[in-house]
Structures are given as C-alpha cells and as structure tokens.
Amino acid sequence: MAFTVAIDGPAAAGKGTISRAVSAHFGLAHLDTGLLYRAVGRKALRGGDPVAAAQALAPEDLQGDLRTAEIAQAASRVAAIPQVRQALVEFQRQFARRDGGAVLDGRDIGTVICPEAEAKLFVTASVEVRAERRFLELVAKDPSVSRESVLADVVARDTRDAERDTAPMAAAADAVVLDTSEMSIDAAVAAAVELVERRMR
Prior knowledge:
Elements: E1 4-8, H1 15-26, E2 29-32, H2 33-45, H3 50-55, H4 69-79, H5 82-96, E3 102-106, H6 109-113, E4 119-124, H7 127-139, H8 147-163, E5 176-179, H9 185-200
Parallel strand pairs: 1-3, 1-4, 2-3, 4-5
C-alpha cells in the first residue's frame, strides 16, 4: 500500500531532520528532494548545462558533500528553471507512490509533486533561527563563515524560492504548519509523528 508523507518548508527549518526521523519511525522510504537540485547545482557550478544535468541525473551524482553554501545557492538558482524541475518531477512522483510508503521533503512536495499526499506538513521557523542553525552547521566546516553572510544567503534563498514562477515554495492549503523556532528536535519530531499517525488511522 502506498502512503505518502509530504514535508515542505524553507532552508534550515528542520524538515530534513524531521523527515528522516518520521521515515525511520514508520519504516517508510525517504527522499530528500533538495539533494536532486543540489546535485544539478553542483554540475552547473562545474560548467554543465543545468537542464541536461537534470535529465541525465544518476544515483552516483548524489554522492559527496552536497551541503555547502555555494551548492545551496546554485541549487536554488537551477530550481527556478522550469525545464530542470520538469525533468525531476516524474522521478519524485514515482518514488512517492512506491509500495510500502514514502516520505519526501522539499519545497513543493505537498503543492506540486504530491498534492494527493495522505499527510502534509510545512515545517518553518523564523529567519533568524534558521540562519543561526545554518551558520552553526557551516562554520564547523569553514571557520571563515560569518553570521551576517549566512543570514543574507538564507533571506536571498527564501525570496528566490517563494517568488519563482514555477512551483514557488508555499504551504499547501491542507498542510499542518509546524513552527520549530522554539522547539527542540525531539519535540518537533514527536509532533510530526503524531500528525502522521492521525492520518494513518
């Protein structure tokens, strides 16, 4: 039986952590759709054509460190290209309806990729909280990273994701909004698990 959990939200809101925990709790397959765009973004940074990269994306392209600030910005840029999004849509939809169920997280899962998903969450947090989370993640890899630059990057990415013409980031009308600004990881995961359990009844 297919059961799809769609988890959307802006950068560094906690949706990846929550998605992985939900998939582990219920034994569902998990797809971080942002990795698809990051992989295409990395290819674009290396001089590749984004559309061709999306059309030819292979599992090995998802290997390596895709969680750098530079790749995140490139992912947001290529995600605004309609042909790139179209190339990756079908893969995501097939994954979502696989036997045994699936959890997908991204920006447009509940609105575009899986509008019929049985459970939908929109995970968010204040821009200041999200920027601080991302800063702590990045500064561990690169001590030269500044809080100011990370905040500017998060704001720019939010704007680009929300204002793009194709599949802009937005909470689905029937999604439950989960604001993690003042929540611990455990509390946020527990709230998400409870929501999914209600949808499974």
